[in-house]
Amino acid sequence: MRSIPVALTLAIGLIALALPPRANAQTSPNLALDPPLVNGQPIKVAIGLTLINIPTITEAEEHFEITGYLSARWVDPRLAHKPRPDGLPVSYSPDQVWHPHPEIVNAIQPRQRQDVSIEADPDGTIHYLERFGVEVSSPFSLRSFPFDRQTLQIILHPFASNVQRVRFEIDTARTSNSAELKSYSSLAQWDVIGLTATQGTSKFNGAEISEARFEIQIVRRYQFYIWKVFLPLLLMVMLSWTIFWIETFDLQNQIQVAVVTLLTVIAFAFAISSNLPKVPYLTFADAFFLTCYVFVFIAILELMTVHVSYRTRGEHLGLKIRRVSRWLVPLAFCASLTLIAFRFVG
């Protein structure tokens, strides 16, 4: 009777030996979760970013949202193993092995990780990949709006417990824009023109830590503002100059044209205010609007000056002022716009 348990035990052992190993099984019974330091030197981690989409950009709040793939690669000699018969790498879950926990330090909220993959090559090279979504803050320079270009920054540091143990490097092979980004991007006002990456150092609690900085270059599509903002404003200002060609004694019609033009410019400014960035400094668009206000007001001042001169000092002086105004005011307006363009756009 004792031979039956012994035979059963042997049979179970033979069946267990015959089963193939699981792909995500640990390669050693004491798989360490501590960082794989060698001679106390920081672990070199190659960081890459693949941009999938930029759903929104809010320049007034200096925020933008992105979705993408974040990759990391490093070497952990403890996870070296014999190649599998099928040639595939060994997979692990994030709670089984050490990984650098890169953090986007300028994220408004912690990024949302949707899928995470960790795989080990036979030589111990570890490949980390995650799909994520995050809202990020980045400084914007809008002085040349709407002819501006922006650089959206994504800054990565090691997790706080790893700042002295990890040194970031840029994985250029895995840093790029998605090839399909332009086909489904929802950015009506922007074109994404490039993604660059640099590595460096930063300060954390008085100590230098490694930093990976990704910069997305974008350029604004300004055609909307040319056809629907600047051109209508130009036509309104030119309309105000028609008073220079009305008879000097016809005060009523001149005042009607000037006042209606001024009110139209103000109403137009309110109508499109939602399309202009609300920043505490002047942009090109702000300067353009102010210049239009000033020259419409100048037309009204010229009208009153001519009328007063006509009544008090005779027709000759009023006609002389009017003849000069017909050319001087438009030339001054063009010169002012040229100076503004050089000042704000360059």
Q: Describe it for me?
A:
There is one protein chain. The protein is an alpha+beta fold and 346 residues long. It folds into two domains: 15-220, Acetylcholine Binding Protein, Chain: A (Distorted Sandwich), CATH 2.70.170.10; 224-344, Methane Monooxygenase Hydroxylase, Chain G, domain 1 (Up-down Bundle), CATH 1.20.58.390. 34% of the residues lie in helices and 28% in strands. It contains six helices and twelve strands. The chain has helices spanning 3-18, 181-184, 223-240, 251-271, 284-312, 315-344, and strands at 43-53, 57-58, 63-75, 90-92, 103-104, 112-120, 125-137, 149-157, 166-170, 176-177, 190-204, 207-220. Strands 1, 2, 3, 4, 6, 7, 9 and 10 form an eight-stranded mixed beta sheet that branches. A hairpin with a 4-residue loop joins strand 6 and strand 7. Helix 3 (223-240) packs antiparallel against helix 4 (251-271). The longest helix is centred in the last third of the chain and has 30 residues, at 315-344.
Distance from first to last alpha carbon: 98 Å
Mean residue pLDDT: 84
Main sheet specs:
8 strands, mixed
Shape: rod-shaped
CATH topology of the largest domain: Acetylcholine Binding Protein, Chain: A
Number of separate domains: 2
The appropriate CATH architecture of the largest domain is: Distorted Sandwich
Strand residues, percent: 25-35%
Total count of strands: 12
State the low-pLDDT regions, or none.
6-30
Structural class: alpha+beta
Residue share in helices? 25-40%
